[in-house]
Amino acid sequence: MAPAASLIMEMARRAAEYRAAGRRIIDLTLGEPDFAPPAHVVSAAQQAAARPMGYTPANGIPELRRAARRALERDRALRYSDAEVAVGCGAKQVIFNTFFATLRPGDEVIIPAPYWASYPDMVRLCGAVPVIVPCSAESGFRLSPDALEAAVTDRTRWVVLNAPGNPSGATYSHDTLAGFAEVLRRRPSALILSDEIYAHIRYHAGDYVSIAQVAPDLRERILLVDGVSKAYAMTGWRVGWGFGPAELVRGITAVQTHNCTQTSAVSQIAAVAALQGPQDLLAERRETYRRRRDAGLAILKRSRYLDTAEPDGAFYLFPRLAVGDDIAAADALLEAGCATVPGSAFGAPGHLRLSFATDIATLEEGCRIIVATLDGFSE
Length: 379
Ligand SMILES: Cc1ncc(COP(=O)(O)O)c(C=O)c1O
What we know:
Blueprint: H1 7-20, E1 26-27, H2 39-49, H3 62-76, E2 85-88, H4 90-102, E3 108-113, H5 118-125, E4 129-134, H6 145-151, E5 156-162, H7 174-185, E6 191-195, H8 211-214, E7 222-227, E8 240-243, H9 246-258, H10 265-276, H11 280-300, E9 306-307, E10 316-317, E11 320-321, H12 326-336, E12 338-339, E13 341-342, E14 352-355, H13 360-377
Parallel strand pairs: 1-12, 3-4, 3-5, 5-6, 6-7
Antiparallel strand pairs: 2-8, 7-8, 9-11, 10-14, 13-14
Helix pairs in contact: 2-10, 3-10, 4-5, 4-9, 6-7, 11-13, 12-13
Bound molecules: pyridoxal-5'-phosphate.
């Protein structure tokens, strides 16, 4: 069976097609930060590109593995050894390699919805079964330990946790993570994939809490995924990594050796520069995102047809439509000049996802189009 392409990419493609045809389209589809890389990253990449550049180890150059480990220790007080880091072409490839290395036909993977659209399709591509656990808007789109308990079986191979979540922005408290750990201690065959790619983009005070910190006894069953795409606005550079037990890392790396060998050597050197350089940009950008989030929310809240929660993190607004179908709404919005992604792409029909990883004027214009169009569309 040919896999379906990502609906997110499809909406972005349609937006680009309309633009190429001369239409003015505000594109709020992709979670792609609009910041240029800092000068020290550009300069490291320029210098690297001028040198002869061969293959690197499949799991990344040692400098990158070291820099990623140090960053995790600095930010989340977690220590991993060199043999416990796998680098790939973005967090996406690390997750794919992980599933490919570990899933067998019939295995189940628990995915709370709304989810990042690629998780279920990756699981299916590996011949396994995504078990979608719906999480209501009322719960803040958060999985609860009870819902996890009800979903987990002896066939569960992975439980996917993603916080801050895409598309909801939801984060988990220490107590909820402890509740998940309690449930999973009773299911020793279930592994935990903690996708922390948005860990630096959070709007509440306090440190990020990872399940790897809350449940150190489960360390041998956790893969913690991160990368430079979101925090450092380096999506196109394709550098991500996972921290986990050495045996799992060997499996992930073995898959890596058979597909694209390694991620770009130049990108790896740029990622080292990003991780080792000044980190003030993380807090500055967080504030920029916060302003954008608030500006977008203020406009969306004027609509009688949208109910929009304030996200804890990441850079998406995820309004619920009071009436109507999300795919039809996204089509109508594209015709009206604003590209969004229907919630169906994330297992949450009846919602729309808007990325605010774009400048404030563009975002405000897009939100105004959305409000004006939906208010007309729904009457
Ligand atoms: C939750 C989540 N995980 C992983 C990724 C992939 O990140 P990368 O660009 O590092 O492959 C994304 C990108 O949109 C994401 O939203």
